[in-house]
Amino acid sequence: MKNAAVGQHLLSGALSGFAGAILLQPLDLLKTRIQQGDSAVNARNTTIIWRTTKNILRNEGIKGLWTGTSATLIRNVPGVAFYFTSLTYLRSVMAKSPYFSAHQRHSRDSSKTVLPKLSSQGNLIAGATARVGVGLILNPFSILKARFESELHAYRSLSGSLLSITRMGPSELMCGFVASSLRDAPYAGLFVVIYESIKRETTYFIPTAYAAGIHSFSAASAGAIATIATHPFDVIKTKMQVRSEDRYRGFTTTVMRIFKQRGAAGFFDGASLRMSRKILSSAIGWAVFEGMLLFMQT
């Protein structure tokens, strides 16, 4: 990609990450608070969500639902910008290969997008690689985000908390990265494959639809499917990043602890909240990203 194109992708991605972080922080906060728990839960999921929401409102007020927003912005704005930019770069490179390039099936394919087109295998590899790469670089900020949202850590400032995590060494900075990768690689790979497929078919069957509507619908659908398939790893990651006890220091021990405490259902704690957030953030994020690129390039 040329320098101008890189700048456009970074800007579009950053705006996408900013919008999603501000609008959807309450869902992220509730998910983290529910997943951080350790005991068996017998109540229905909706009851747990409502109870957690009432506790936050009673103790912290309405602004409490946006606890950790600053940490989320630090993680998500550059994270989404780097992800979209690296994803497009990888797809541009891979599109030159006959193994991964895809020919337009429909003449209308190019009217709703300016992104490179790959085969399903190419999209799967590009999505997974870009997501895990960005996750590796920004893992310390993912830990910071999770702990600011959790009530188990009394961090007072972003700089102080990041310094505290750094002082604990490389193992703390990479805490939860394996679980994050096992969640993010299949999530991102599946997402891009499903998103591009739905977008292509929707463009063909409803050619008069607005581009933003197609992007939002395709992204929301892809987000829902990819989220439910990878949610157990999100629960494991959250436990490892916010709990300090020895029983949550390793991937295997964390899995065993969750299963012992909650059974298979424990791996789906907060699933409805994460799915709601992913559906909305995907719809907002990809509509903003592709919309901005269409606007700037056409």
Which characteristics define this entry?
73% helix; 0% strand; 10 helices; repeat; globular; mitochondrion inner membrane; 298 residues
Please tell me about this protein's structure.
Solcar repeats lie at residues 4-93, 118-201, 210-295. This is Mitochondrial glycine transporter. It catalyses: glycine(in) = glycine(out). It comes from Suillus subaureus. By secondary structure, this protein is mostly helical. The chain has helices at 3-35, 45-60, 69-94, 120-149, 158-167, 170-173, 177-205, 211-242, 251-262, 271-297. The model has no long low-confidence stretch (mean pLDDT 89). It has 10 helices and no strands.
Give a summary of the structure in a few sentences.
It contains 10 helices and no strands. With 298 residues, the chain is mostly helical. The mean pLDDT is 89.
Strand content: under 5%
Give the N-to-C terminal Cα separation: 17 Å
Helix content: over 70%
Oligomer: single chain
Number of strands: 0
SSE run: HHHHHHHHHH
Mean pLDDT: 89
SS class: mainly alpha
Largest sheet: none
From the spread of the alpha carbons, the general shape counts as: globular
- Give the helix tally: 10
